[in-house]
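Entry 14. Ran structure prediction on the chain below.
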Amino acid sequence: MAHRPAVIICVLLAGASACQDSPTDLLPSSQQVATNSLADSDAYYYYQGGKVFLDLDPTRLVVAAQDPSPAIDELRSLGMNTEKSEALPAPDHWLLRLSAGTTTDRAKAASASLRTDQRFTFVSNVFKTRNGGDDIIPLNRLTVNFKPSVSKSRQDSLISAFGLTVVRTPRPDSGFTYFVLAYPRDSVSFLRVAALLDRNPLVAWADPDKISNRHPDYVPTDPYYPLQYYLKDTVVMHGVTVDDNVEPAWDLTTGQWDPATGGLRVGVIGMGIDAAHPDFDGRILAGYDALYCQPGCTDDETHPFPGDSHETLVAGLIVSHHNNNGVAGIAPGVYIVSARIFRGCSAFCDSVASDQGIADAINFLWDWKSALVINNSWGGGAPSNAITSAIQAANSQGHGGLGTVVVFSAGNTSNRDGNFIGAVQYPATLPEVVAVGAIDRNGNLTNYSPEGSELDIVAPSGHYTSRCVGDVTTTDLTDGTGCNDGPNGDNLYSTTFSGTSAAAPQVSAVAALVISRTQFASASFVKGKLYGGAVPWGSATQYGAGKLNAFASVTNVTVTVNGPVTIKRDGNYSWSASAGGGNGSYAYTWERSADGGPFYWVGSDVTYGEFIDTNSPDNITLRVTVVSGTETGQGSKDVHNLIVP
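Output, structure tokens:
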């Protein structure tokens, strides 16, 4: 690479005593770009200011070339066999799988040898995160987000100083605020380049673009409405039925906005959605395909690859039309904008978008397609500045600055049958998102739902999860390559969806219902309605705010029940209702449930009282419904009788 004029270097140096003409001299000597491969202990990238340390995987190499054959031949000349070559979802990128017994030293030597061959524009070993073991499959791409005050000339100078090639400039009109850059041909330490840029005072963050082991969270797999227990259940726990309580919410809204406005849009990111399904009533819109599709393929974000049913199952929970046919969606009045980041996932995903591709999908949905809610029934993998930044941008800048509500499934990381409790998985760990766990149709934690302080809310799903293992009924692929287990042999539908993947879209749909009633609702307002409307279900680390309650979330009357929670001695006790909002005077209806049984009417005043002693039930749930004009709200309180005889 030819050296740039000295004047460019002077622009980049802050407090330098002299101009230099070498890009590595732009930085302190301790940070200079290495001239040889990183040692194992030095392999890392920065995420949110902290180092994510990596360990080399000796069994896999990445090569960027039009054809992997020369690389395979060269490896053979080194006495190394390539067991398999796979096209990655990035142009001209190949993953080469080496023998299981390959040592780290031999893998490094092979990478170094291939790097000297001019036919390959990029060569790298594959890594795993030291904590967690997540895949890091590098690509010849670096995403860089400059600080807002940095001029274009300074951006260009820094890019030139590192010998980087611009692949894509920022496109603010599409939500893409960062550069996509390619490493210099002779770079032997792309991680060091990324780290130096991340620490540069002109840069907000820099991410080595990579493919990680992100995955859908099920996994999958009007006449059928009686099968949709998550919408209308008969099982009672904590004094309420174990469902989303959506029927009274439909009396207020189904998510319908004037089609002339483009309708209320919900983004759904995953495998793509079968837009041809008759129960979608033309409400699936083309959005974004983050995968590089090989020439000749015909699938995309609205025509999934055969077997990729996951987001078609998700979409059915949100938007299935109320048309006396099939199943009922929670928000049938909205439109869904589809974005694809997975392909070929009937067993394991053959193609997963890189971090940059996933970030692009998120940004495209909230910025270009005006999605006010984005559902993500996927997660896992190593943390990414690009993905986190896109989520943060959606949360703060979407919906005209009010914020787009970003919902994530919390993960299927537990195995309670095996006495293992898993953690909430990234990106559901981010404070900007709504992290959704799962309870089963009986109100108990599912076998797989994670625990942690990041959990925000729970919704019903199958107790166990795998592909086509579960009990959630929803839409399936129209080409017959889905689960093929629909009710009465109707394979346009499936009865076996599950996982936190099935819980998350229920929350996304209710968020859309909330927005449909309050057009200028901010993301924080909507999340407050979801959490405030939830029925308390137990420990916050297991259930978050509690079980999703559509009716309490969409109503514009807020109700709080005030009074004692624990009773320790005989006596008269009372509770009062505090109401706000609505469009008229308040009318109160108190109901009482004993030890999880049915509710019975007990009063119609602003307060309710009763005498409690050792003969009273151990657990009492009080529920008050408040009507104000055309609006209705509901509040409840669990009371525990701890009187000792």
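Residues 1-40 have pLDDT under 50 and may be disordered. Will compare against last week's run tomorrow.
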